[in-house]
Amino acid sequence: MEMKSFQCAVLLILVVGLAGCSGLSPSESTSYPTGYNESGIVDPELAADQHATALSEHDNYTERMRITSPTLDGFVTTTIRTDTVENRSAAALEINNSGETFMDSKMYHDGTKRYTNTQIDVYGDTYATGNESLSSFQDSLVNTSQIDNWLANISFEAAGTVTRDGATLYRYNSTGVDDPEAFFYTTEFVTIDAIESVDSTLLVDEKGLIRVFEVTVTHSSDGETEEGTISYRVTDIDATAVEKPDWLGAAKAYAEPNGSEPVVKKQ
Questions:
Q1: Residue 19: how many CA atoms within 13 Å on its side-chain side?
Q2: What is the mean pLDDT of the chain?
Q3: Whether the predicted pLDDT of 134 surpasses 50
Q4: What is the C-alpha separation between 219 and 223, in angstroms, rounded?
Q5: Is the dihedral of CA 26, 215, 57, 239 positive or negative?
Q6: H helices of the chain, where?
Q7: Which pLDDT band, with edges at 50, 70 and 90, does 130 fall under?
Q8: Backbone angles phi, psi at 134, to 5 degrees
Q9: Would you call 30 helix, strand, or coil by DSSP?
Q10: Domains of the chain, with CATH numbers?
Q11: Three-class secondary structure of residue 251 per DSSP
């Protein structure tokens, strides 16, 4: 089962985003990351591109994303571990609905091929394999255009600096949302009457790497007040190990000898 189909099933509603803290006001001589200044984000596209560039300069790192949705009555969590030196990556995706795990998917990329082990409700273990570049694998989970969209549709203002693990981070707080449709996908079953509040914080380091981005959106829907959140974090920079999963042998056993299309078979 393709990861992209997972995303389509998951992102029926909500947001996508990242979290923060307080600190001292930068001086006029402060050198801000590309796409930012003392007032806020001046170029979301450049800021998103710089985030990707800054990430690529590290040997390894972990990305964590969590989405909560009142409409789904649950949450979606994604953890991506990447080792750029070994040219491999591993990811875990969980979809929880009404307190129960609806889907638990684990993925591994060895630099040239993707392997997936998925458990969906009553279907049991399902394996998929397919040829795919590492960059495409990573983009299917979190990509630059998503980050650009997040940054472009929230108004931010600078809120000083904080220090985390010895690194100086610039803090930006939200002042409002420019385009609610950028954070909500509505269907005939879901209506959003009004956005009541948006609370978002972004922490970015001096090189433009977004360490934390978090957004909480409160809205009214059919007379009810509901809240959705998204949290994105980059952690364990240059301290992330990507190990081969114990299910890799089983996934390889189902691989087709030819072709690039993934093959899915039950265990």
A1: 12
A2: 79
A3: yes
A4: 10
A5: positive
A6: 3-10, 44-56, 134-139, 144-152, 248-253
A7: confident
A8: -65, -40
A9: coil
A10: 3-266 (2.50.20)
A11: helix
Give which of 56, 55, 49, 19 is closest to 34, Cα–Cα: 49
7, pLDDT greater than 80: no
- DSSP sequence for 208-248: S-EEEEEEEEEEEETTEEEEEEEEEEEESTT----PPPTTH
Per-residue confidence (pLDDT) for residue 187, from 0 to 100:
40
- CA–CA separation, 54 and 48 (whole Å): 10
d(CA 65, CA 214): 10
Q: Identify the residue whose tokens are 């999963």.
A: 245
Measured distance between the N- and C-terminal CA atoms of the chain, rounded to whole angstroms: 14
What's at 83, amino acid-wise?
Answer: D
Q: What is the DSSP letter of 181?
A: G
Residue 189, number of CB atoms within 10 A of its CB: 7
Q: Any idea how long the chain is? A: 267
d(CA 177, CA 217): 9
Which tokens hold the place of 195? 């956005």
